[in-house]
Amino acid sequence: MKKTVMMSLLVSVSLFAADYSSVIEKPNASKMIQKDLLAPAKTFTMPAGCITTDPEAIARGAFIFHNLNGKKAKQNPPKGLARKQMQQGKTYLPGDKIPAKQYGNCVACHNIEGAKGAGNIGPDLTGYKDMFMATGVRDNQFVFQKIADPRVDNKDTHMTVNLTTKLFTTKEICEITSYIVSPK
């Protein structure tokens, strides 16, 4: 008897239950995944005049190399860099929150002269100019490409894809490259 009453109650409740299916969000996961996928690896040609000995450009490259983002940067950015960056194509109104500028934090994986907390996941870049540039084993285009999109010759890399994803501009990649190949 108890079982019959219980079943009757369940059937009654289910008949009068509200239909919430129209208010449940059902995102299209396929579209979300496609949006998040990286574009194919791309070969970039370093622009003329990219590598410079300008101390201000090298200072910007060093700052980008050694810091994660503007909000948590260890010191004030050098001339030409800001802690926050307005996004292209977006209109900002007074009071709008401008996002922190994302820097490279290359030092999380790479060691280089003067690094604090240098990583050991990526290649050690200490003495890079003498070991690779001066000997002709590497050239500026190689370094530029590695920073722009390292997947060109290593599809399984864990390094950030900086120019393809527009994390950095061409100018910023030139400044990071100039810093890496500069005498320390």
Structure explained in plain terms:
The chain has six helices and no strands. Helix 3 (55-66) packs across helix 6 (170-181). 21% of the residues are buried. With 184 residues, it is mostly helical. The model has no long low-confidence stretch (mean pLDDT 84). The radius of gyration is 26 Å and the shape is elongated.
What's the rounded overall pLDDT mean?
84
Can you summarize the main beta sheet?
A: none
Structural class: mainly alpha
Number of H- or I-type helical stretches: 6
Helix coverage percent of residues?
A: 25-40%
Strand fraction equals under 5%
- What's the overall geometry? elongated
What sequence of helices (H) and strands (E) makes up the elements? HHHHHH
List the helices and strands and how they pair.
Blueprint: H1 2-16, H2 29-36, H3 55-66, H4 128-133, H5 140-148, H6 170-181
Helix pairs in contact: 3-6, 5-6
Any descriptors?
184 residues, 6 helices, mainly alpha, elongated, single chain
Question: Nutshell version of this structure?
Answer:
The chain has 184 residues and is an all-alpha fold.
